[in-house]
Amino acid sequence: MNKPIRHVLGISGGKDSAALAIYLKNKYPQLDVDYYSSDTGKELDETYALIDNLQIYLEKKITILKAADGNGLVPFDHFLKMYGGFLPSTQARWCTKKLKLEPFEKYVGTDPVVSYVGIRGDEDREGYISRKTNIQSIFPFRKNIWSEDVINKFLSNANIDKVISLSDKVDLGSRKNRIIEILSKRMDLGFTQPSKFSQLLDEGVRELNYLVFEFIRGTNYPLSKETNFPLLDNDEVIVRDDVFRILKESGVGVPGYYNKVGYSVGSKTGEYSRSRSGCFFCFYQQKIEWVWLYEQHPTLFKLAMEYEKDGYTWNQEESLEELILPERINQIKSDFIKRQERSLNIKSPFLLDILEEEEGSGCASCFI
Question: What is the pLDDT of residues 299-316, one digit of tens each?
């Protein structure tokens, strides 16, 4: 017998995945979504508070995944010991693999799974796509809900005739001739895949969704087992401001670490906060976030410092001991004020995100 499709959503403790859980419950209550969260044992208290609030709102338990348990050590410390004290870094992200991805793939097993990912419509990144064929990622907040691997196959020059033949099975309305015209054009250096896909989206998001879904039904993607999919009619784009609105209006609330805290350097004033979820000592943090941790959570900062030994540090450029020297803190704060001043005239949420995260793009599987 064929296994039924599981719909799953990972709660990272960040704003986007939390807002997506609320969004799916309210807009697509017919979806029976399983919620999970990977606990590293090193999350901020605000992360656990968010999970508690979400469980109340969703009226559903969030399954807590732990990569290692029962050995007296929390998951992160267990694997740190296994790796001989070698701290994770941008070059060796063993924490992502061992604490996030492997527990998730073990959780879903061989079941056909649709995994909902909270990447917003004002972000330019793809997010985690599993190499396991039984897991398919969907992005409800974007104009394009499909993952890159699906689009690559759908738009492949080798599949042009096949896709056009499927157009008779889908109601493309008055746009049908134009859509077929675009589909018929072969991609090359002068007509790239992003250009082709953008033109198709402009002709109609719903129409394109139904055509992609018809294409998927001839593949081994999990959604090939479905006769319909409610998100095909979704052409809503959710951006940064929408996420905060969803969290506030639901009563779940915005995680406390997003709250801006004022500071001053000489005659200048600025604000800092945390920009993402994840372990309190995450190496993807901006320098200003390390300063925030030092000043707002000194006990946690001290714990992060204790991990730095035997030549291993969280930042390649400097140790945490060096980062919190008074003159260094003032420099970091001053630099961040300048970045904030540059952002005042920028209206695009996407560009604001770039300024906020220019010291590190983060790990999509941790911070969605």
Answer: 999 999 999 987 789 998
